[in-house]
User: Which sequence fits this backbone?
């Protein structure tokens, strides 16, 4: 490919999906490869080694991670019915927009990230805005991973050290794991991470059903379970809860850098459907069971909801998964910055000092920022919800809606059905804007209340916030 100015995107030829049994045209694939960020036919570091089964597991670990630990808490604010509809509705919407983003990327194969897509539809200013939101989102997600690992170490050690020190240790481990350069190389970690978190959550789900009363409830005497079928939350509580559920499956923009490292990017949709189908079924089942048995006494994160013994077992088994979650979030954020810096340089796929220095600087600096943010907002669900409202509402709803409008502009003047679909995407963009503004307001107000009520001991406090419940 000819050298281009920094940030310039050259249109790639549109590709179509091949049906089973079709023979791929090698010349066509070679031409398409010219528009890919990582080339396959050059000497140097080969990144495109990820098959779609491995991609689906990477997606699973990105999505089924810290989100599942906060959904039962959100159920308390929304009630069983409202919470279930929220899980299903946001899951379907996030799945749809994951497919929209993948289809757009495969039509514009030069796009490595959501920011590159923003450049195609909105120009350089929108690209920088979305790039900043992308980095903030996954740095905040890395912060939630740090909190999760620190909470696990606190539980396993019975708070043998200050929480800040556990968070610092967690950060160091996550940075070390995230510094592996290729998604293909960390693929085996995602298998272990997903299985460990899934088993840990499953143990808690079984554990809560064996207790006569929630572990966090008063040990004797009458108590209010706090389980309701239909709840009537305040605007602040409702928006915080719905943002928490939304963000649990909204990290689909992290899928896009993986496409650039897939052997065949056209297999992306298969990986998404496998991932999102399993995730949404698990979210709905696990969250409803835990909420039914724990009510308002569910802990935050929810792995502590079945008592101290099960809590230790769950955190011990799930520790690998919590580390891998933070590792993936940090890797995605660092890979974006790394590609932005070296994209038009020979060092992008060359084992040089510049290559390694740039890559390690990205992981260390962004990991350090995540540690600071994690200690500034140490209540798990609030950090998750804030990530959803500020970052993922624009990235996972508003921008994908715009991407679809860009590639389907002919729907605007077509038949009634196509016009309805076209303007329906405008409605989805407005829903994203409302979630962004309303959700951010609600979460900030809840953080203020938490500080005022003493639920948060203060920034860089040694207090363990893992026993906070609904």
Assistant:
């Amino acid at each position: 490919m000819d050298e281009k100015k920094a940030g310039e995107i050259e249109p790639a030829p549109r590709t179509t999906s091949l049906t089973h049994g079709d023979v791929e045209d090698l010349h066509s694939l070679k031409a398409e490869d010219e528009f890919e960020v990582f080339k396959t036919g050059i000497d140097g570091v080969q990144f495109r080694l990820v098959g779609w089964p491995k991609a689906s597991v990477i997606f699973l670990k990105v999505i089924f991670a810290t989100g599942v630990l906060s959904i039962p808490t959100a159920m308390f604010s929304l009630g069983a019915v409202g919470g279930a509809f929220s899980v299903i509705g946001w899951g379907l919407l996030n799945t749809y927009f994951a497919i929209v983003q993948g289809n757009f990327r495969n039509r514009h194969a030069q796009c490595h990230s959501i920011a590159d897509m923003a450049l195609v539809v909105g120009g350089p200013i929108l690209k920088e805005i979305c790039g900043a939101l992308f980095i903030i989102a996954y740095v905040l997600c890395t912060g939630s991973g740090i909190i999760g690992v620190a909470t696990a170490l606190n539980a396993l050690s019975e708070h043998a050290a200050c929480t800040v020190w556990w968070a610092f240790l967690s950060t160091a481990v996550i940075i070390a794991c995230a510094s592996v350069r290729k998604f293909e190389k960390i693929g085996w970690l995602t298998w272990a991470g997903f299985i460990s978190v899934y088993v840990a959550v499953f143990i808690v789900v079984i554990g809560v059903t064996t207790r006569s009363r929630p572990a966090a409830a008063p040990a004797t005497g009458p108590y209010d379970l706090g389980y309701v079928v239909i709840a009537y939350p305040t605007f602040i509580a409702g928006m915080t809860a719905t943002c928490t559920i939304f963000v649990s499956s909204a990290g689909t923009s992290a899928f896009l850098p993986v496409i650039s490292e897939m052997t065949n990017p056209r297999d992306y949709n298969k990986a998404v459907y496998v991932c999102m189908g399993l995730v949404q079924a698990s979210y709905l089942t696990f969250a409803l069971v835990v909420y039914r048995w724990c009510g308002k006494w569910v802990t935050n994160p929810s792995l502590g909801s079945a008592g101290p013994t099960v809590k230790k077992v769950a955190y011990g088994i799930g520790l690998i998964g919590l580390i891998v979650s933070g590792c993936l979030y940090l890797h995605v954020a660092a890979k974006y910055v790394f590609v932005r810096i070296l994209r038009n340089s020979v060092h992008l796929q060359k084992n040089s000092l510049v290559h390694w220095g740039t890559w390690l600087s990205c992981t260390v600096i962004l990991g350090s920022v995540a540690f600071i943010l994690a200690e500034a907002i140490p209540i798990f669900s609030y950090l998750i919800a804030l990530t959803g409202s500020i970052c993922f509402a624009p990235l996972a709803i508003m921008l994908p809606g715009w991407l679809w409008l860009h590639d389907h502009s002919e729907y605007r003047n077509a038949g009634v059905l196509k016009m309805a679909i076209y303007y329906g995407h405008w409605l989805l963009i407005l829903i994203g804007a409302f979630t962004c503004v309303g959700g951010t307001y609600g979460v900030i107000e809840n953080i203020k209340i938490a500080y005022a009520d003493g639920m948060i001991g203060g920034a860089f406090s040694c207090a363990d916030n893992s026993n906070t419940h609904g």
The two ends are 55 Å apart (CA to CA). Residues 72 and 293 are 10 Å apart (CA to CA). The chain has one domain: 49-452. Residues 114-157 form the longest helix (44 residues).
